[in-house]
Design a protein that fits this description.
CATH architecture: Alpha-Beta Barrel
Number of strands: 10
Number of helices: 16
Helix content: 25-40%
Strand order of the largest sheet: 1-2-5-6-7-8-9-10
CATH topology: TIM Barrel
Strand content: 5-15%
Shape: globular
Distance between the termini: 23 Å
Structural class: alpha/beta
Number of domains: 1
Order of helices and strands: HHHEHEEHHHEHEHEHEHHEHEHEHH
Bound molecules: SN-glycerol-3-phosphate, calcium ion
Length: 381
């Protein structure tokens, strides 16, 4: 795959150093606010953020999901950071292990307990793949049985281990359960050279044909729904780009008063009826984000099929204009279908979180050089 001009600042420098850049490429770093902001922070425009890996094609947050995302050509591997009882940083989304593992068989009495109450050794006993085979038989593979939950370190090693070098897009998940996790994350990233100085591409790296986000200033993006965690992330890692995720609910962006459930309605239908209380309320969240070091927001999307990840539409045109006018960029979650990419791309979002990396790469005219089957075969999945 080619990188076109998605992280033009960094790529321009790389090309200049090998004498390949023309003036037309150099002068292309203009355009709309989101593009300029992305370039300013060294973040690809448009950004392809592999949500829990390529979690459409493989069980979320497992090795094949992240290997696929990396080799297909995602810009970022997204992960939800939690901590085990014995202090290990791991990548898992839910705050219990019921949905995505066989915990009900392995530790039946503890199936409802939070992730934070299990040691890493206990967590590594769980099968994090078979649920996917049962839920998505059309995408099931025998090799997914028995997959393990990954540590942050294992995700990092995947990010670093291929020809493509994606960035890491890390969410502090339920951070109130994990005091000090922001500092631990800083220490971890520093120890492994992901923050605190430049991360140089080796001479052998080919920036034209491979993703090189890991060598740009935007190689790590930190994200959180929680204002308090944003403040802590900013204290610990002021130089690292941060995104405040936006959500409409009690304790988050206030809604206009449509929060009564109608009997029998789906979650998505319910969310779709919600509207922000006022433009001022939305603006307050943007102002908080900006004042506490965020370089952008991650709003929720209403999807065409009102599927499982369809929420309140927090990327309406006036919202996006207000966000860009305040100098904040927009990475929308979580979108998988071409019609939804088209709808929100026309509204000017600067990148998407997607479960389906190949679909978003196709949408952005960056078709992967290898297919899903080919990549999985390479790694014996
Ligand atoms: O991090 C962006 C998106 O992942 C937020 O939603 O619940 O999937 O973590 P969630
Ligand atoms: Ca997330």
């Amino acid at each position: 795959m080619t990188n076109h001009n998605r992280y033009a600042g960094w790529l321009s420098a790389a090309l200049l150093s090998v004498g390949l850049m023309s003036t037309s490429v150099a002068s292309a770093a203009t355009g709309d606010a989101g593009k300029q902001l992305s370039e300013q922070y060294g973040i690809p425009y448009h950004a392809v953020i592999a949500h829990r890996g390529d979690s459409f094609d493989a069980p979320e947050s497992t090795a094949p999901a992240y290997l696929l995302a990396r080799d297909l050509g995602a810009d970022y591997l997204e992960l939800d950071l939690q901590r085990t009882k014995d202090g290990q940083l791991i990548a898992v989304h839910d705050d219990t292990l019921k949905r995505t593992t066989n915990i009900a068989e392995v530790f039946p009495e503890r199936a409802d307990d939070p992730v934070s109450t299990f040691t890493l050794a206990e967590i590594k006993q769980l099968d994090a793949g078979s649920w996917f085979n049962a839920q998505y038989p059309e995408r099931a593979r025998d090799s997914y049985q028995g997959l393990k939950i990954l540590t942050l370190d294992e995700v990092r090693q995947i990010a670093e281990g291929g020809d493509n070098k994606p960035g890491l897009y890390i969410e502090t998940k339920v951070p109130s359960q994990f005091p000090g996790i922001e500092k631990e994350l800083k220490n971890y990233l520093k120890q492994h050279g992901w923050i605190g100085g430049e991360r140089e591409a080796p001479k052998s790296f080919d920036p034209i044909h491979h993703v090189g986000v890991a060598f740009t200033p935007g190689r790590v993006i930190l994200q959180t729904f929680e204002k308090e965690s944003l403040e802590k992330l900013q204290q610990q890692m002021p130089e690292v780009p941060k995104i405040l995720l936006l959500w409409l609910d009690d304790g988050y962006i206030a809604s206009k008063g449509t929060a009564e459930r109608i009997e029998g309605e789906s979650d998505a239908d319910f969310y779709a009826r919600q509207q922000v209380a006022s433009k001022e309320e939305f603006e307050r969240w943007l102002d908080f984000a900006k004042a506490h070091g965020a370089i952008g927001t991650g709003p929720s999307a209403e999807l065409h099929d009102h599927g499982a990840q369809s929420y309140a539409d927090l990327a309406q045109p006036w919202m996006n204009k207000m966000t860009h006018d305040k100098g904040l960029l927009i990475h929308l979650y979580t979108v998988d279908a071409a019609e939804d990419f088209a709808k929100y791309d026309a509204r000017g979002v600067d990148g998407f979180f997607t479960n389906h990396t190949p679909a978003l790469l196709e949408f952005y005219h960056r078709p992967p050089a290898q297919g899903v089957d080919e990549i999985l075969k390479k790694y014996d999945f």
